[in-house]
UniProtKB/TrEMBL annotation:
Keywords recorded for this protein, A-Z: Signal
Origin species: Phyllosticta citribraziliensis
Signal peptide (UniProt feature, chain positions): 1-17
Protein name in UniProt: Uncharacterized protein
Organism lineage: Eukaryota, Fungi, Dikarya, Ascomycota, Pezizomycotina
Domain of life: Eukaryota
């Protein structure tokens, strides 16, 4: 009886440790699964003004190597909707974000913050590396996009009804960064995950292989 009790006491911590390792492994798998899903970005405006209502609920789009808010205006015609996901940035210990840039070919570009202007841009690795490429992450509950651990994204009206995406890295209202007299509004970026299809499943499997090599895209 004493031997049995001692044996149970000695094996119990090991069993609990194994169960905890399994639980953490399952949580990590679920976390990586949602982060690898392609999603659109939807603007949430924190200002209830007329201009704020004009951009609230709008999608982020890509055009001319920059990210914009699609207000339905002719100035953003020919854009491509942000369609991206998280991916480890090459030779770094953090995750970046990539997006398709066209609907006719599976071409991906990195999303990054211009280190001089704080404009949010996209480009190939050689364009992104000299700038701010991460870490990108998301909030736990609502999975809103974050950069460097916080939500500092702003919409800047550079021209009438032309809203560009910036990141207020210095937390000073983009002083010295946005065009003179341009209006800036604080926003959030919510991830709207796309439907899982067989093609998307295949893409996720290919992504896992790419992550192991940590070389894509170049």
């Amino acid at each position: 009886m004493v031997v049995s009790m001692l044996l149970a006491l000695s094996t119990c911590p090991a069993m609990l440790g194994s169960q905890e390792a399994i639980r953490q492994g399952q949580q990590k798998e679920r976390r990586e699964e949602h982060r690898a899903r392609r999603c659109h970005l939807v603007v949430g405006c924190l200002t209830l003004s007329r201009r704020g209502r004009a951009i609230d609920g709008r999608q982020i789009v890509l055009k001319d190597n920059r990210l914009w808010i699609d207000t339905g205006s002719h100035v953003t015609e020919g854009h491509h909707p942000f369609t991206g996901y998280y991916l480890p940035f090459p030779d770094c210990k953090y995750e970046g974000v990539v997006s398709t840039i066209t609907s006719v070919a599976p071409i991906l570009n990195w999303i990054y913050i211009d280190k001089s202007t704080y404009q949010v841009k996209y480009g190939v690795r050689i364009d992104a590396e000299p700038n701010l490429t991460g870490p990108f992450d998301c909030t736990r509950q609502d999975r809103r996009l974050t950069f460097e651990g916080w939500e500092g994204f702003c919409a800047v009206e550079e021209e009438p009804d032309l809203w560009a995406l910036y990141f207020d890295r210095d937390d000073n209202g983009l002083e010295g960064k946005k065009p003179p007299h341009a209006r800036a509004l604080e926003i959030t970026l919510s991830r709207k995950e796309m439907k899982i299809t067989t093609e998307e499943l295949r893409r996720q499997q290919e992504l896992q292989q790419c992550q192991s090599r940590a070389q894509f895209p170049n």
